[in-house]
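Deliverable D2.4 — example input (structure tokens):
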């Protein structure tokens, strides 16, 4: 299956009638040719998906058992998508795009992370909309100090932050601890706590992220739906009950749906509902990008569940 955040979201927003260009790279190998062909056949513009003859396409193995607790093993050190540089892109096109969505995984390796930070900073100066899926995966980082530093830099350049409870806790810790003695060699419990944060703790951490420059902090709550915290307050939308087959790609599906709503100028309540519905459909199917519904499928799902699309 195709499984990469930018590719999944690209297909998700393309399926909703929105133009999406993923910024990524693949190797000059069978996996890379398959991925580019799949995206092109899905109607996604692949002009910024480069082919690198030096490195192989990134690979991940997923164990989907039980369905609610998938385990992923990554082969990304090094791989082609971590090598994307500004010279591979039409920088002005990226800086002028209506929205740029980045993932925390893109910060783990050079030169991709420097490329991402340059684009985020340039767009912030122009007042363009930057979205970050926090996507905290500690196994991809050499040490906590490096991880905190780059997350802190990126979080402060983004308008919308999306993550589950643990990821939001980590992003807040990055803002709070980067450059502080407490961040050096910090372990997981020091960064995100022993378990999931409470509602009050989540709201406090979201306020820290708003103070750092975000305008929306979107928290994915699994089966309980999602909420968004803004300077004006908190909005929450319930999830949609489904039979879970595979949780891989659910977060990417949610992000694709939520961002599609933002691009259309919808109220935040409807953006949350659209994201929740997309994620619910994804977990009821096998696969990642192939599981992301079309706009017609999503509208039909919402009509059945809510009486409206």
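Example output (designed residues):
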């Amino acid at each position: 299956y195709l499984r990469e955040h930018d590719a999944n979201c690209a297909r998700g927003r393309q399926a909703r009638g929105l133009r999406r260009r993923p910024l990524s790279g693949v190797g000059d190998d069978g996996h890379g040719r398959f991925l580019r062909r799949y995206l092109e056949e899905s109607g996604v513009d692949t002009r910024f998906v480069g082919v690198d003859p030096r490195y192989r396409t990134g690979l991940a193995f997923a164990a989907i058992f039980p369905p609610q607790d998938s385990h992923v093993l990554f082969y990304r050190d090094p791989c082609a998508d971590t090598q994307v540089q500004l010279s591979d892109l039409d920088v002005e096109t990226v800086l002028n795009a209506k929205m740029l969505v980045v993932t925390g995984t893109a910060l783990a390796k050079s030169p991709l992370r420097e490329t991402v930070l340059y684009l985020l900073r340039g767009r912030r100066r122009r007042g363009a909309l930057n979205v970050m899926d926090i996507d905290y995966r500690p196994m991809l980082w050499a040490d906590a100090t490096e991880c905190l530093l780059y997350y802190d830099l990126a979080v402060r350049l983004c308008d919308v932050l999306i993550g589950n409870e643990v990821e939001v806790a980590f992003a807040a810790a990055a803002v709070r601890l980067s450059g502080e003695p407490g961040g050096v060699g910090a372990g997981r419990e020091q960064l995100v706590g022993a378990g999931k944060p409470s509602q009050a703790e989540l709201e406090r951490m979201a306020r820290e992220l708003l103070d750092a420059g975000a305008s929306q902090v979107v928290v994915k709550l699994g089966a309980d739906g999602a909420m968004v915290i803004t300077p004006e307050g908190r909005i929450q939308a319930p999830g949609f009950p489904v039979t879970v087959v595979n949780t891989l790609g659910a977060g990417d599906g949610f992000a694709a749906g939520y961002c599609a709503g933002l691009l259309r100028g919808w109220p935040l309540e409807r953006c949350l509902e659209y994201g929740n519905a997309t994620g619910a459909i994804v977990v009821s199917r096998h696969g990642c990008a192939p599981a992301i519904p079309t706009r017609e499928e999503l509208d039909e799902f919402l009509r059945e569940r809510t009486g409206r699309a």
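Residues 98-220 form a domain with the UDP-N-acetylmuramoyl-L-alanine:D-glutamate ligase fold (CATH 3.40.1190.20).
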